[in-house]
Amino acid sequence: MRSNDPSAYYCAYVKAEKGLIPWHDIEAIILKEVVTGNLPSLNTNVKACWTEDDIWFRFECEDDHIVSNMTNHDDPLYEEDVVELFIDEDGLRTVYYEIELSPRNVVFDAIIHNDNNTLMKVDTSWHVLGLETKVDRAEQLSIYEIKIPLVNFKRLPVQGMKWFWNAFRIDEDEQGDRHYSAWLPTGAINFHLPGFFGTLVFIR
Asked: How many domains does the chain have?
């Protein structure tokens, strides 16, 4: 199902056969340059779906140059190439989860307390329970998959329920220039502007 609202994404319920998600059947959204809203030189598609037990996200990234040296959980992955999810299940836009995944399959996860961007606290002591991730590389395409068990959330998905979210990518080119992209651009090189979050609408 495709939404007429550009700030809404319909997150479809699927059955994972032998743990495999039918990604070819799931609608993709395209990340845009975070300030201008233009299309970046390298394309990034993002897909999401849910099952009885988990919510899944997949980033399909054109990538001709990878910068990824960090190896420890909760290293500052945002200083190198990374994909990022911000998820606000309550819609209050003051507390949300941040999950990052690097090309090395290293994870950064935290709870963000953001008071209208005037006071922000990043709590890296929180970790996603049962998180599973993987990164595959094929020619000049990097594919990131993130599986988050629903036990991490208070408001479990049902038909029509809305969460709030945004998806991001940071990519460094061969010249050392960093490129920032988002599903819903924030108008600044700053992902932590929850007023720009869109809706994740669960359908079944």
From this structure: 1
